[in-house]
Amino acid sequence: MSGPAIIRENTLTTLRGTRRDMSRAKWLRAVGKKPPEVRREAALIRMDIEQALLALGNEKLASISEKLKENETSLVEGRAELILARKKLERVEKVLGSASKILEVLAKIVTFPSGL
């Protein structure tokens, strides 16, 4: 696999893991204890993760390879932060913030149906 392909696959793997974690009972209990605005943010980020997965999965690698290379540092940093945050799911706000950062970078690379 080339550089952009690895970046794309690693990003997809991280987003899929985050989606899985956000579906687990531990996460849902932690989010359920938060104020309504945090629960709403969690729901919106979960939806954005789904859209990012769809957009990255449907996008042809050739059409985004240059943008992946340009944003490689931000994506690698965002993935590392998100992976670390996922290890401590009880810190809901940290996971949400980390997920938001990587989604912002992805919005520079692929088009989301919701216009993220």
- Largest β sheet strand count, sense and barrel closure: none
Described by its quaternary structure, the protein is single chain
Ends distance: 29 Å
- What gyration radius follows from the Cα positions, in whole Å? 14 Å
What global shape is seen?
elongated
- Which class do the helix and strand fractions yield? mainly alpha
What is the succession of H and E elements?
HHHHHH
pLDDT average, as an integer? 87
Task: Count up the domains.
Answer: 1
- Number of helix segments? 6
Low-confidence segments, given as residue ranges, are none
Kindly state the percentage of residues in helix. Answer: over 70%
Strand content: under 5%
Counted beta strands: 0
Q: Helices, strands, pairings?
A:
Blueprint: H1 3-21, H2 25-32, H3 36-58, H4 61-70, H5 72-86, H6 92-107
Helix pairs in contact: 1-3, 1-4, 1-5, 3-6, 5-6
